[in-house]
Amino acid sequence: QSISGAFESLYKQHGVAGLWRGVTGAVPRVAVGSAAQLATFASAKDWVCERQWFGEGSWAAVLAGGMVSGVAVAVTMTPFDVVSTRLYNQPVDADGTGKLYRGFLDCVLQISSKEGLLGLYKGIGAVYLRLGPHTVLSLFFWDELRKM
User: Fold this and answer.
1) Are the C-beta atoms of residues 105 and 90 closer than 8 Å to each other?
2) Which GO terms describe its cellular component (predicted)?
3) CB distance 103 to 38 below 8 Å
4) Are 29 and 80 in contact (CB under 8 A)?
5) Whole-number Å distance between alpha carbons of 63 and 100
6) Which of 76, 82, 95, 114 is the most buried (most CB within 10 A)?
7) Exposure of 132 by Cβ count < 10 A (0-12 exposed, 13-18 middle, 19+ buried)?
8) CA distance 74 to 40
């Protein structure tokens, strides 16, 4: 019925641990994505300025850096998204233990062995369509605000 109802239901069924189910996939995802985003943005922006494609401090250099960063974010985060989604959506037993995967690493190993490494990149197009514009706009506005 509501968010508070969902929290209550999860807590009643699985306790506090149920509220944190899937965190082992979410935390590495955010850490890797943020690192890739910031590192590639600064490097790409500096690179296009060094090549004199765009002037230092120009909005075009910021936009180019954001575009490169968006690709890097999609490439680094997609495997974590795939694993997190599978961990979140797997059926659980009465104790809240997953029936398909024992955890993050087990999920990665099962996907890799059954579907190959490209199995970790299912949906990368959709991930880029979501994260690419978000990354470009976030970094563009962040850079503009930093100048102020």
Assistant:
1) no
2) mitochondrial inner membrane
3) no
4) yes
5) 42
6) 82
7) middle
8) 12
**Using the 8-state DSSP alphabet, how is residue 117 labeled?**
G
Cβ(132)–Cβ(71) below 8 Å: yes
How distant is the alpha carbon of residue 116 from its chain centre? 20
Alpha carbon distance 27, 139 (integer Å): 21
Rounded Cα distance, 83 and 141, in Å = 31
User: Which pair of structure tokens corresponds to residue 45?
Assistant: 């922006």
pLDDT in tens, 30-57: 899 999 998 899 899 889 888 888 888 7
Q: CA 148, CA 143: separation in Å to the nearest integer? A: 9
Residue 88 has pLDDT above 80, yes or no: yes
What's the one-letter identity of residue 145?
L
As given in the structure block, the two tokens for residue 62 are 């910021």
